[in-house]
């Protein structure tokens, strides 16, 4: 089994993109902001369904310990993301949805 890491551990290693192993869509991932002091307070959730569900992609998430609804950066529940970036053709294709069509 692959060892899970925390976002803070990943930041110390220079990793900025992560995913959780239980996520179904292999393109879903979280990007953290790396600063000279380590990890910034915000993370950005990339998901091809975001545009349809939230009107934008990525969705920003407060990423500090104890923040209501935030992500705990010390919890060891992440894998480095090795999939396609949001700028790739594969990700863009997965993000595009046809408008609902009326039944004839």
What distinguishing features does this structure have?
alpha+beta; 5 strands; globular; 17% helix; five-stranded antiparallel sheet
What does this structure look like?
With 104 residues, this protein is an alpha+beta fold. The chain has one domain (7-83). Helices cover 17% and strands 24% of the residues. It has three helices and five strands; from the N terminus they run αβββαββα. It has helices at residues 7-12, 50-54, 89-95; strands spanning 17-19, 29-35, 38-46, 59-62, 79-80. The chain has a five-stranded antiparallel β-sheet. A hairpin with a 2-residue loop joins strand 2 and strand 3. The protein is globular. It starts with 6 loop residues before the first helix and ends in a 9-residue tail after the last helix. The mean pLDDT is 85.
Give the secondary structure arrangement, pairings included.
Elements: H1 7-12, E1 17-19, E2 29-35, E3 38-46, H2 50-54, E4 59-62, E5 79-80, H3 89-95
Give the structure's gist in a few sentences.
The chain has 104 residues and is α+β, with helices and mostly antiparallel strands. Helix content is 17%, strand content 24%.
CA gyration radius, whole angstroms: 15 Å
Could you say how many structural domains there are in total? 1
Regions with little confidence, pLDDT below 50 for 5+ residues: none
- Describe the oligomeric state of these chains in a short phrase: single chain
User: Helix fraction?
Assistant: 10-25%
Strand order of the largest sheet: 4-3-2-1-5
Strand content: 15-25%
3D shape: globular
Counted beta strands? 5
Structural class designation:
alpha+beta
């Amino acid at each position: 089994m692959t060892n899970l890491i925390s976002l803070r551990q990943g930041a110390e290693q220079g990793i900025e993109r992560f995913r959780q192993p239980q996520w179904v869509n292999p393109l879903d991932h979280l990007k953290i902001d790396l600063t000279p002091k380590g990890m910034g307070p915000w993370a950005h959730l990339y998901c091809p369904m975001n545009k349809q569900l939230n009107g934008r992609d990525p969705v920003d998430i407060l990423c500090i310990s104890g923040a209501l609804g935030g992500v705990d950066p010390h919890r060891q529940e992440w894998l480095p993301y090795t999939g396609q970036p949001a700028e790739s053709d594969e990700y863009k294709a997965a993000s595009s949805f046809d408008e609902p069509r009326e039944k004839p």
